[in-house]
Amino acid sequence: MLDLFRASLLVILLVSVEARTRRSIDLIAAHSLISDTRLPREVTPNFYDLQLEPRPNEGTFEGRVRINVTWQEPTDKITLHAHEDLDIFKIIVTQFAPDDETEKASSTPLPPTEVRVMRIERVPKKPLYIIHLEKTANRGTQCIVDLTFKGNISNDTSEGIFRSSYVDPETKNRKWFVATHLRPNLARKVFPCFDEPAYKVPFVITVARQKNMVALSNMPLKNSEQMKEKSDWVWDQFQQTPPISTFSVGIVVSEFSNTDYNTTDEDNNWNYEIRVWARPDFITALANVTDKIRKSVKILEEFWGCPYPLPKLDVLALPNYQATRPADNWGLLLFKESELSGRGSWHISQELTYQWLGSLATPFWWSDAHINNALVRYVTAYTTLKMETNESFNNWPMTMLYSIYYEFSKRYPHGKSTAIKQDSTSAKTELVFRMLNYTLGERTFKHGLQKFMADRQYKTFFGDDIWNALTEQAKFDNTLNESTVNAIAASWITKDRLPVVNVTRNYKEKSAKISQRVYLRERPHDVPDKEKFVWWIPVILIRQDSLNFSNTKPIVWMKKEKEITLENLPEANQFIIVNPEEIGPFPVNYDVQNWNMLAQFLCSENRAKIPVNTRAKLLHDAWNLAYAGDLSFATALNMTLFLKNEREYLAWDPVFTLIDHIGRHIDSSAVHKKFQTYVRLLLTPLYEELGEEPQEGESEGKAHLRSSSKVFLCQAGYKPCIEEAQAAFRKWMESENPDEGNPVSNQYICPVFKWGTSEEWEFGLQRVIKFPANRKQNERTYLLKTLAGCPNEAEKIERLLNITILEQNGNFTDNDIYLIFSMLTGSANGYTTLFNFLKKNWDTIKERFEGKLHLWNSLITSATTVFKTQEGLDMVSELYVERQTEFGTADFVIEKALKNIKEETKWSNDNLPVIEKWLDEYLANNSK
Fold first, then answer.
1. Where's the Peptidase M1 membrane alanine aminopeptidase domain (predicted)?
2. At how many degrees (to 10) do helices 671-690 and 649-666 cross?
């Protein structure tokens, strides 16, 4: 065994962990979801020899790991990661190379000598395992740390080393399989190790299995040996891996079947093998997966400028796989069955992208994981679009971009959720990569990333390594002279904000002032230091007299300037478009004349000369700027007129979100009924043209458009939809045993409770009360949500509140009541009824909720904070004066509510008359 470790020293100089001290643009270091104790850098690994013996039937495993380590600093201890549940019961430390000074003084090799272990220390509440040695070893000392361990295989989660099972349809026998999912820092659950991404070293992995099973790991099988102790077991040893991080290690032991696909590239003189694995009766569902993999790998090889880095790729569909995302072990990908058998290719492309970015080149620490994740997402999108699978992903990046617009325009982005912050920041960084691809040019962008990959393959990287590579390439190609990519990127990704660009044209001078400021959608706009925010913004301009959307080079960059002036613009009767195709992640506002010219052009037969993503952008920008108070709603609503003839689902995609946002904001006013009529007139021709039933071979986009149209028509009271829903619901009402199951599709339940009869709603209420304990409780939860959140009539809501709060019906828990309060905030009818119920029954409710402060605070929040008109402000103010000393722990809630309602009332006073006037004119011209 020592010979194997000595041989490994030949590559140590190439793969040793880099003690790098530079910092990248650090987004999430202070907020990372991964809270981990850094290992001291006194001793570092060079090589692992890992043996694992999983026993799937018993749910346990044993193992042995021999780690070749080198002392970087004098110390008498070795610190490793090891989970507290991992039982390490044998430790041997053998020194086989002297320290630097001894080696210089001696001409003869040092014989292997065992180093005495004095004691073992487990650090409380930390996954640290410290081996204290008899004496201090100096810099350059090399040892083998030999540890034998055992543990339990997880049944409850798909993390660490876990097992699951399925039933063989032929024999009816239960079949177990074992797999590992070690990302991000779960290798310590399986074996003692240096469980940090920066420690990239080779592994030799050996796995025990029964003869009727197959073992897989990161590399191809090297040899198999009969196990001496058990005649029906064998040891499978796999080829040595390239330098990898511990989270990239993977094994699977199963009785799966496989379909293989060999691919070769004679020009580049390399080849690799693809195998797709699944339980035998599911393998036919994966017939097209190898073709998707082959296509995706080919695109990724072209993108990165280097071949797939391993000799094989095993892809598995795991039954009962519970992880939230696939496991991207290097050379061994684990998916849920539904993810791998689905029509799309997004999941496959994403995990294949991690084979390069994450495994081949690895973030040095988790503070750089955000940039790794963002670039993976961008490259996945690039690959998926190149695959041309016609899946719904074709709306990228608009849907993602709209959601981060909403998040970053809040007064307090992310709230207190670190997870939301991490995801939205990563999404924004992904869009920065997309912006750089357009503004630097695809050739420069790809060559820069290829340069980065060539430099950092088999190594680790910081975020700055990516920006520096792009900067060097841009300077070489002369596509960026103003600054560095580092500075441009930093101006975007270090702020929890996005800009809005205002374009005000001087039609006589053929010029325009372009200014930037913080985009704030949520009121009030009293964000601290908002005047100090500035970005590097690319100004990409499209003119009506030259509708060339292929030229994405900026005519100028706003170099963190508040305002610049553009000259030589077109004539006064021609529009301009800034930031076409949403190249940069920012909305754009224009003067009213330019907006009106755009609206008129979109209503003409020339509409298609503006690409669909830009049509969607113009519509989305106009509505959201109006919502934020930066544009008249009359102008924004004019931008919807072209939808009468629009049939591209991408252009419609933002409409449904906007209908929902505006509808919720105005549903307490008389204008809401007119708005619902407008929605019916807008969507009915589209829905009738699409037809009620899907057509064979239609795109996912068309199906999505039909589904969304139907949902919003139902909400707006479209009669055929209500009748269809009631007919479906009637079958449930007429069934002999309605509590045995719900035969009604979820899409029908809310329309029935909203527009149907009291009898239908009461039937739903009884189903919740009598819901059997042996049925899935999420079905009951959905039914309760719709009972509370959908009705138009106050009587239905009052009955629900009477039963749950005043009568204290035992079939409803505190969690049910909390859920009801939450659902009632979704409509003016809901929260107004709740407010009146609270006011009428104040003393009784106060008594009921004594000792249940979370319910009391939730009630006050739901009943008072959502009003948006002067009438609502008066109601809440009156209650506050009347009960001022009785709010208790909810006192801060009511005070905050009054402040917010004042803002919303101002919005309503400013905008409702404008919306109503526009709707009156529209309905007068379009009513049949």
1. 292-492
2. 160
